[in-house]
Amino acid sequence: MVPWLAGIVPFGLVIGVSAAQADIPALAGWLTGPLIYAGSSQLATIGMLSAGAAPVAVVAVALVINVRLIFYSARMARPWRGTPWWWRLAAAYLLVDPSVAVGLDGYRRLGRGRGHAHYLGGAVLLWVCWLAAIGAGVTAGAGLPAWLHLQFVIPLYLVGQAISRLADPAPRRAIFAAAAVALLALSAPLQLGIALAIAAGIAAGLTARPAGSAQSIHPLQPSTEVPR
Amino acid sequence: MNAWTVIVAAGLGSYLFRLSMIVLFDRITMPARLQRATGLVAPAAFAAMAAAGVAAACGGLGITQAAAPLAAVAAAVIAVLRTGSPQAAILAGMPALWIATALLPS
What we know:
Chain A is mainly alpha-helical. Chain A has a domain at 1-146. Chain A has ten helices and no strands. Chain A has helices spanning 2-21, 26-36, 39-50, 55-65, 68-80, 85-93, 97-142, 153-163, 169-184, 192-206. The radius of gyration of chain A is 18 Å and the shape is globular. Chain A starts with a helix and ends in a 22-residue tail after the last helix. By secondary structure, chain B is an all-alpha fold. Chain B has two domains: 1-30; 40-103, no CATH class. Chain B is 80% helix and 0% strand. Chain B is elongated, with a radius of gyration of 20 Å. Chains A and B meet through helix 2, helix 3, helix 4, helix 5 and helix 6 of A and helix 1, helix 2, helix 3 and helix 4 of B.
């Protein structure tokens, strides 16, 4: 888990700073951490709420981004079969990209018994560091001067994430289509253009040949994905 | 619905996603096409929000003022393409934004 922390702490700081700069209560921005607990979805929620998007559109976009969690849930169903319900309820709350990756590795190397402890230990460590990083970002971001233009950190972060995924054909099509539709739909009411653009991007990406790219778009291999 | 309600609703929905297969279908295999679509959500969402965010930052600005965020985006794209690291976007883009904002006439 430790290597993952090097990636997620800066991301948590960015989300915290964004929450402090957004036009929503700072505490509400921080609460996206324990409640949503998925970085990209948190960023979208904070950004869209700050932009005045319709509540239904915000929730819809946040959930569309998190739909991969259903896949993670399916992946962990087998090792968690037969465990107490309270354990599954708690362990499911901690499901996110790094915890799934570390957990599956633990079950493969250590077996189920010690694998449970491996998953839970890593996931709790991740959760604590994530919330602490967001909190530090919220605290620091509120006192930073306006000339720093920190509100531009989110678009730049998103640009970096998008550009770094251009190598494979399917994500590349998804990225260009989503960006084009987002720009064309800028005047769409209630920020619905974002949801429309995501749908268009997914549809465009699915037109690419899966052969050779299936590995790269596997939800558990998002090389740059940190709790999201 | 205010911001608090939206965040609680998004959090509750996300938790139900996390629980869904564990509770209901612990033997199910997701269709391959749905798995592919799931993997495309992140790049599509990043691109859509990036484009909209940059457009919003430039909106209402004159041509010269809008050049600063666009220069930052250009620096970010070049940095990511050269290094392969998404974090390079912020490391290159923010200084480019500060420099361009200071140099360009307001």
